[in-house]
Protein: VanZ family protein
Amino acid sequence: MVLPASPSARASGAHRTIAWPLALAYICLIIYASLYPFTDWRNQGIFPLKYLTAPWPKYWTWFDIGINLVGYAPLGFLLVLSALRTRRVRWAVTVAALSAALLSLLMETLQGYQLSRVASNVDVVFNALGAWLGACCAWGLEKAGVVDRWSRLRAYWFAPDARGALVLLLLWPPALLFPAAVPMGLGQVFERLESALADALADTPFLEWLPVREVELQPLVPMAELMCVTLGALIPCLLGYCVIRTLGQRAAFSAVVIAVGIATSALSAALSYGPQHAWAWLDVPVQVGLGLTAVLALALLAVPRRGAAALTLLALAIHLGLLNQAPASAYFAQTLQTWEQGRFIHFYGLAQWLGWLWPYAALLYMLVRLSGRERGPVAEK
Structure:
């Protein structure tokens, strides 16, 4: 299937597409979900691709087929969108589907070396079909002019150098789905990192090199929790202010960010503790923190883009410093076991790593952005 270059693609690259980095992130997700927990490897002594000639399984469900279709459809969609940014796209749908099929083939073959996994030719077929359907959807949107309208909308709302910020903002809601000890609190890794290092260095002289805490981590007091919630919700607002053009757009954007943060946190609680506890996390410190976020987001509407980047960096540093001074509760640890060992096992990898790494990726992005020359003016009125 041959695609002509879209008008947005012919516009000499006014802005860089976010589809390609999102496609790379999704490939990492597929690899993690396919090979998790990365243990119990063994050689069965048979030809690695023998599963491709196996008969159709006797027992299967439409749910399994649906998961395979839906799992690879976004990859095909993003790969075709990435190709649309080139001058001319030849066989974009076919190439995207074949690329996804090769990835699925590799993942299934590697699963054949894991005790906890079973390689399946059915998975390969429906993964490839899902990627093809996603690619066709992107092609259809391009033919309907939706992709070009999105390009114009993005150019109206965001600065040309907004790709990094947009990728981070799109990944923020999935990161919030990982159950956090503090609402909006992403990046709490100190305690787990310390424990992992201690286990890795056990029975070695390097264990003595680890710094020893004189006191154990203490739970956050309500004021510290309030600050974590406030900064955790304010950071994506400030991140958007770095690339959004006008004051009105900033105001609308911050309202959407706060609403999405609340809705995603409620969904996370419902998945973790049950639908009846979807709003149990919304106690008084959290409510006050979210209200303070709205006030600060409104007060900072007119801050210059470079100033917004500096404030984002400061907010990240304070947020991570406060959050990593607190331990995870025992009840929270039990919740993580539900995610790690139960029904969330395949989704666990994405949510876990996004929840841990998102603030540090934003920190790195802000450092890179502030180290360069300012590309955009103060937000327009």
Notes: The chain has two domains: 7-157, 163-371.
